[in-house]
Amino acid sequence: MKKTVFSMCGMCTVRCPIRVEVEDGEVTWIEGNPHLLKGALCAKGSAGTALLKDTERPQQPLIRVGGRGAGRWRKASWPEALDYVAEKLKTIKTEHGPESVVLSSRGGPWQGMYKTFIHAFGSPNYTNHDCTCGRNTHHASLSINGVGRKGFVYDIANSKHLVLFGRNMFASMRVAENLQIMDMLDSGGRMTYVDVRQSMTGLKASRFFQVRPGTDYALALGFINEIIKRGIYNKAFVERYVSGFGELCQFIEPYTTAWAAKECGVKEKSIIQFIDEVAEDMPKVIFHPGWNLSRYKDSFYASRALHILNVLMGNIEQKGALIIPKGAGDCGAKGIRNLDCPKPDIKRADGVGWKYKHFDKGPGLSHLFFDAMKTGEPYPVKAWIAMRHDPFTAMPDPQAQKEAYDNCDLLVAIDTHYSEFAWYADVILPESTYLERDNPICLQKGPKPRLAVRRQVVEPVFDTKAGWEIFKQLADRLDIGEHFPYTTINDLYAWQLEGTGHTIEDFAEKGFIPLTDKPVMYDPEKLDGQFKTPSGKIEIISEKLTKAGFESLKPYVSPDKPAKGQFRLVYGRSAVHTHGHTINNPLLHELMPENSLWINTKVAARMNVNEGDLVDVIASNGVTETGQAHVTDFIHPECVYTVHGFGRQVPLQTKAYHAGFSDQKLMIGLLDNWDQVGGAINLCEVFVTVRRSSRNPKRRVEL
Amino acid sequence: MNKYRIHLNTRRCIGCHGCEVHCKTNKNLPPGPILCEIDHQPVVMLKGVPRTEFSFRSCYHCEDPFCVPICPTGAMIKRGDGIVYVDQEKCIGCMACAGACPWGVPQHNPETNKAVKCDYCMDRVDAGLKPACVTKCTTLALKFVIMTEV
Fold it and tell me: Which CATH number belongs to the domain containing residue A93 in this structure?
């Protein structure tokens, strides 16, 4: 029998809408939802079928029997594994208090469920992966606009100029966004790309600035200087909505285009020409404020500068620019219900909210729990539940992390694949893949908000369960089941949709329920109340930062130059892999089995390194990773680059095991090198030594 | 005359290799055979911006294909509309076709031990659909062109 199911992809966390065909219980076709994406899907999306069939993923609950990380497991039934986890959690709760348990997830639209669980258990310590991703951008946006980084969506299709600082769109593969960019370029729009290396996004750009690593902030300051000097900002907008513009004008004076050009190693003429273009294109110019800007010591301020550039464009709530996302209320519709439980009134173990008052309390900062594990202050952290989050891949220096995690009595991993963390954990609770599970309904905000849902397409291949079921069953065992008011997923859907006038069947036709036919736009002349800062204005000088003792306009400090023989290590991603998640997927592995180390041609020549040679990449403490060199003109000589997620150490993943090398293992000391103002880890503030490896064969004796 | 061809709008192509996987999953192929390929020229600097040219290659569906007459079992067939395909029932996996093809287009499927090649997803085409690579191209850069007599 053949059927069609609309759902949501799960190969990466973009969660593109998909349409899936199933014949006799086999997935035969996955495409982008034709109603939203005209069928378009990326390589990873199609490779979902290979994930489904992959036998090298956890097939039933596993309880560790050997030492942590030794890879000796006992197969357990679900009731047994859940009982085991619940008993351990109860003991820890009695001995150390409920707050000693941390739950981390990647983040995303279903965080409510995980938060509900840990809050109901009695701990305030929910966290996510954002300290290694968008925290700086998020806090930068909050400090200026009073709304987080998701407080704006970008109407790229109708814009005239998209400016990207290292935002490598064509590797990140947000399919809808990529289609928008292509349509924009097709209708004559421009794209400016800034990076330390050439990427696929750079190849499609109309202007490219290859900057010295760590100088993004300088370039943005140069842009602001020139725009203000030439008076090509939106004066009415600034007058009406912005405070602190005078201070900005004063601050920006020394940061001329000539200065910026010299600092970044680009041509001043190019900067001037770029500003000419901006003057022509505004207000339909989008300065993307960055995504994974957990990179340099001033990335937070770089992101603030990018937000300020948008403010100068006066491009908020304009077609072809930044749009305030609308929810159900804006469409006169009733919103859905989501699982929720108030946070216990206990201070967080990561210090967010009491020690660090300027950070968003939501998910806190996951790297700040290690101190609590090691010192027992403010109280001990004794258990960590990782819901589809892999701290050992996401955060620097897994060895240092393991030493901290060894103070925990319980490590639980809930994931679809063997994460590096799962392999070290005490219990693995295998989640069904996205094609084998339902997820709760979520609201997707935007100019045209809609309700969307992921639906189970086929029966689980192995003895795995969906997240909603795992948390419910664990909650029941811990006597907090009342916070999960359902038995089946249909109960949950009915509870979520109660009062909305919709039923789950309404999703079957298109995979989503639109809440409006036409885009909902506010009057750009009446944006008062939209900026949730203390003053209600867009604040160039943030009251919150001032109170916390931080500058809003930070004088520029030039980044450190690497010592002789050393390089700054920078990382990125590829269009065919999702960090560590997909390295073992047979079809994606075929496209990219290993990563490589990008190194500048001239530098490589001096080191006698040729394309394809093995090179040793050595961290400050001697940790060495070996990989193949990719010699190219299109990378700044001060840095080397690699794709993150490789060098995996789970022997059961036979394709990914030790294939390529891992950047995070080389990031020694970075767990303590984080942005005190923005909150994120400075993942590119590390220098490595590179040498031609002795493993390059000269002779080979076989017998 | 060949009725169909696949055209790549190189301006829209972002070299994401999606088409290769779309093709493989539609044909249920294991690692090994790759029936269409995206490639690009070495990157060069052109007026201050890095540039490259993408190309898409599957099968040329030759007017007079070498792979058809060399097939000992008559499994390689050229249809009236020009599509050259492998009849999986008749194929014995001798791979003479791959040797005869100047571009080595036919490939060996290690799971079925038979030859496999691009057939423009003719089951889809016959059902009024487009080939998998075109249908799901990430940036809608691939077009399925149906030639009409003028």
Answer: 3.40.50.740
